[in-house]
Amino acid sequence: MSFVRPELLSAAHRWREVIAGAALAALGLWTATRGGYLLAPLGLALVALGAAWALTAWRRLRFQQDGEAPGIVRVTEAQIAYFGPRVGGFVGLPELSELRLLTLRGRRIWKLKQGDGQLLHIPVESDGAEALFDAFATLPGIDMAALVAALGTDAPASDSRVVALAEVDRLIWARKGAGVVVR
Q1: Which bin fits 170, alpha (ψ -120 to 50), beta or left (φ > 0)?
Q2: Cα–Cα distances in Å, from 125 out to 36, 68, 82, 99, 113?
Q3: Whole-number Å distance between alpha carbons of 101 and 110
Q4: 122 within 8 A of 69, measured Cβ to Cβ
Q5: What is the tens place of the pLDDT at every residue in 39-75?
Q6: pTM value?
Q7: Over 60: is that where the pLDDT of 159 sits?
Q8: Spatial separation of the C-alpha atoms in residues 177 and 140, rounded to whole Å
């Protein structure tokens, strides 16, 4: 018998990393106020570390989407694999040239494009899709705040006069210098 409501336990479990980062920052602040030439810099370093941890955990929490979509996502050694019921495939992070977020008939999908033109579509709510946050963070020059913000915005209603398959197609990241050089 638990004296804590199950909803509160699940919320605390979901926010556990953010809470741990905030607790580390609070411990650092307490340590910094104890004074001295040793404790003040150590405490400030703990505050910075805890704040960075809490910010990253908060972004990772916002990246996770509720809902269920078919398929399983696995990220191993710089390779993203998607195993869907009908389609699937692999994309290597070094070969990735473009990352887009599509909204297709109300469902959001990651569109990963390799340099050779091959595409991989992964539903945002797929099982294991939260591992994509750390994989996308390794891409050179990606703005993770913009990535999380794109997930947080709702897609605007599409124009009924235009017959298009994709309602919204947002470019999140593109590799610089991936073009063809002609001499």
Answers
A1: beta
A2: 50, 5, 12, 17, 19
A3: 5
A4: no
A5: 999 999 999 999 999 999 998 888 877 778 889 999 9
A6: 0.70
A7: no
A8: 12
